[in-house]
Amino acid sequence: MVNPYDIFTERGFVYQCTDEDGLRDIFEKEKVTAYIGFDATADSLHVGSLVPIMALAWLQRTGHRPLAIVGGGTTMVGDPSGKTEARQLLSRQDIRRNMEGLKRQLSRFINFDEGQAIMVDNGDWLLSLNYIEFLRDIGKHFSVNRMLAAESYKMRLETGLTFIEFNYMLLQAYDFLVLFQNYKNKLQMGGQDQWGNIVAGIDLIRRVEGGQAFGLTFPLLHDPKTGAKFGKTHQGAVWLDKEKTSPYDFFQFWRNTDDRAVENFLGLFTFLPIDEVRKLGSLDGSLINRAKEILAYEVTANNHGHEEAAKAYLASVKAFGQADPQGQIKTSSRIAKLAADKSQDVPTTKLPLNQFKDGLGALDLFILAGLAKSKGEARRLIRQGGAYVNGQRIKQEDQTFSQTDLDDGALTLRAGKKRYHCLRVKT
Questions:
Q1: Separation between Cα atoms, residue 117 and residue 68, nearest integer Å
Q2: What are the tens digits of pLDDT across the range 123-162?
Q3: How many CB atoms lie within 10 A of CB 369?
Q4: In the chain, what's the furthest Cα-to-Cα distance?
Q5: CATH of 246-326, one of 3.40.50.2300, 1.10.240.10, 1.10.600.10, 1.20.1560.10
């Protein structure tokens, strides 16, 4: 299994890490539980939250366990990190409503079935705290001088830091301690403005439990043209909720990415192989727009599903034309399938799931799909480099495909440049 720290590094997720060698080593030795917190300040996350969401998704894909805190407790206080003024305090009722929306959105990217990932509400332990006991047991481990030196506080000291916000670092550090104690959580991840809070939690775990924990932060992204915080437009935030930002507008946000950010965004916001990310990011001239289409399609599909992404892509092509009408760019993205024939659906054959359980050979797949009449013809297709499954070229004639290779319940086959067929599980 690939070490997730290596994935984080090569795809651009790592800004700072408390102990790179130690974290890489622990990923090799055990199944690591790692958490990221999402405060419920709105009933939807926006695209600025996709970096931490994708990090949790990669963590799960590499065999480890994501833990998401939906902060019913810390939202009552408000995080001063990266803010020039205090947040508006929300009622408990508003926070509960917002939490439900966040849970639905996180579930699109992370599988919470059967303990594969965990979602908790820090209100379960923060709201019942006895303040005096908390100060005695937890507050004694914090130095006010060190807290004031943290970047998240230094910025706000110029405009006014409220006492309730000053407590936020203690509460987040306490979250880390509780998760370490109850879930054996050893890693906290977050934006680079969370560094001080994360380090405070690691120090608290060391002082209280004598345990070792780790921290990793992601770079904060900005628009290369305007310098504005990523995810903000002249119309406001770009939301993950389709009622706030339509799938078409969501697609167009990514389609309009600055040329300089395309490779970085493909690495952070898609699951495309890193070799393809680099190839697409190296394009120039008009072909860079094809890479933007692929970026927009992949991110929209992850968030809204492939059907909505296909509609958005075809609407974009109708309005603005196709970025690569000559088909010069070969990609594993499903957008290649749509670009191949915008007027027709891809032919589909439905198969029972049990046919995939024991594995189907590549030769059999192309015969089942009608893309080859015989095993000899299928062999020639593979040897000539013209056989693809889910966008990946087949290099071995004896390669097999099982249930784990299904992408959204299907395998999309391509023979040559234009012949497509979909083998889909019967529902």
A1: 8
A2: 889 888 888 888 888 888 888 878 777 766 666 676 767 7
A3: 23
A4: 78
A5: 1.10.240.10
Residue with tokens 């680079």: 192
pTM, two decimals, is 0.73
Query: Which stretches of 103-248 are assigned E, i.e. beta strand?
Result: 118-120, 185-191, 214-218, 232-233, 236-237
Question: 4-218: what fold?
Answer: Rossmann fold (3.40.50)
Angle ∠(369,375,381) on CA atoms, nearest 5:
75
Contact 371, 386 (CB under 8 A): no
Task: Residue 176: name the closest of 5, 16, 52, 37 by CA.
Answer: 37
Pairing label, strands 33-39, 65-71: parallel
Nearest CA among 124, 230, 129 for reference residue 179: 124
Instruction: Return d(Cα 364, Cα 392) in angstroms, integer.
Output: 17
pLDDT, averaged across the chain: 86
Query: Which neighbouring-strand residues pair with 414?
Result: 388, 420
Domain-wise residue ranges, the chain: 4-218, 246-326, 348-425
Give which of 177, 166, 173, 192 is closest to 18, Cα–Cα: 192
C-alpha 211/C-alpha 213 separation (Å) is: 7
- The domains spanning 4-218 and 246-326 adopt the same CATH topology: no
Distance, in Å, from the CA atom of 8 to the CA atom of 30, rounded to the nearest integer, reads 18
Contacts for 81 with CB less than 8 Å, ≥ 6 apart: 151, 152, 168, 191, 193, 194, 196, 197
Domain 348-425 has CATH 3.40.930.10: no
